[in-house]
TrEMBL record:
Keyword annotations: NAD, Oxidoreductase
Family: Belongs to the short-chain dehydrogenases/reductases (SDR) family.
Protein's name in the database: Acetoin reductase
Function: Catalyzes the irreversible reduction of 2,3-butanediol to (S)-acetoin in the presence of NADH.
Organism: Kurthia populi
Transmembrane segment boundaries: none
Superkingdom to which the source organism belongs: Bacteria
Length: 258
């Protein structure tokens, strides 16, 4: 029987790219997103292409929603093999203006979401008595800290730390936990970051220029596309990655060197 993967935040952007790659790899995929309208549209498009997928709306910051998506995956497909904690949000703010609401919002989704998704998936793998793979969205911002992106960078450093700690605790169940760390990918997230950086630049930047400046240092000379990220997740989700755990692997075309 083909394997089953859940991908959170997969109605669009990198999550959709990851879901499409896993479908190509032969997975049955559960798409999960807070945007129910977009989720239904994406699920319909993928079904029309012949994919064996379902959509489950939910908010990753709610622990119950994460256990619910695992329950629905098992109800529909009988098992769970891979859980991708992809959903995440951005925040662009000068450090002195960061407030409690921003910290709570970004950490609730980017950090709590990863913890709850990991718990829900791990409990299912333990119940099944099978190996399992948990794959988290980190970022180059989980290795490097950026001006105006302090809250976001801190949240991604926390994702890297939870990847390390959970991989150590879950190894005895044959569950691996790894993270992918994208660079500068052209998705709605970067459209928003660019707009906000322009807004905070006092006229120094025009639309598109923050994205261009960030992309300028990429050694391979182009910005990232969802397929680049899908390729790394495809490997991490495969049996070929069975002996890799606790790693936060950078895929950025050569921008941040660790
Ligand atoms: N775009 C980039 O350059 C980079 C992105 N990343 C990370 O990759 C992941 C995906 O990023 P993008 O696709 O660019 O973002 P995006 O903003 O383009 O898409 C995110 C998707 O997640 C969904 N979502 C947002 N909040 C949610 C919640 N609470 N529960 C469930 N779904 C939710 C959105 O509806 C959307 O469909 C994020 O964790 C992000 O931090 C990391 C490094 C670079
Ligand atoms: C969006 C992101 O993850 C950056 C700027 O590294």
């Amino acid at each position: 029987m083909s394997k089953v993967a859940v991908v959170t935040g997969s109605a669009s952007g990198l999550g959709r790219g990851i879901a499409e790659q896993l479908i190509q790899d032969g997975f049955r995929v559960v798409l999960h997103d807070i945007n129910e309208v977009l989720l239904n549209q994406t699920v319909e498009e993928l079904k029309q292409q012949g994919a064996d997928v379902i959509g489950v709306p939910g908010d990753v910051s709610k622990r119950a929603d994460q256990f619910y998506v695992v329950e629905k995956a098992v109800e529909a497909f009988g098992q769970l093999d891979v859980f991708v904690n992809n959903a995440g949000i951005d925040a662009v703010t000068p450090f002195l203006e960061i407030n409690e609401a921003e910290l709570n919002r970004v950490f609730a989704i980017n950090v709590n979401g990863v913890v709850f998704g990991t718990q829900a998936a791990a409990q299912q793998f333990i119940k099944q008595q099978t190996k399992g793979k948990i794959i988290n969205a980190c970022s180059i911002a989980g290795h490097e800290s950026y001006e105006m992106l302090a809250t976001y960078s801190a949240s991604k450093h926390a994702v890297r730390s939870f990847t390390h700690a959970s991989s150590k605790e879950l190894a005895k169940y044959n569950i691996t936990v790894n993270a992918y760390c994208p660079g500068v990918a052209k998705t709605k997230m970067w459209d928003r970051i660019d707009e906000e950086m322009v807004r905070h630049s006092d006229g120094a930047l025009q639309i598109g220029e923050a994205f261009e400046q960030f992309s300028a240092g990429i050694s391979l000379g182009r910005y990232q596309i969802p397929e680049d990220v899908g390729n790394l997740v495809s490997f991490l989700a495969s049996d070929k990655a069975d002996y890799i755990t606790g790693q936060a692997i950078i895929t950025d075309g050569g921008l941040v060197y660790r």
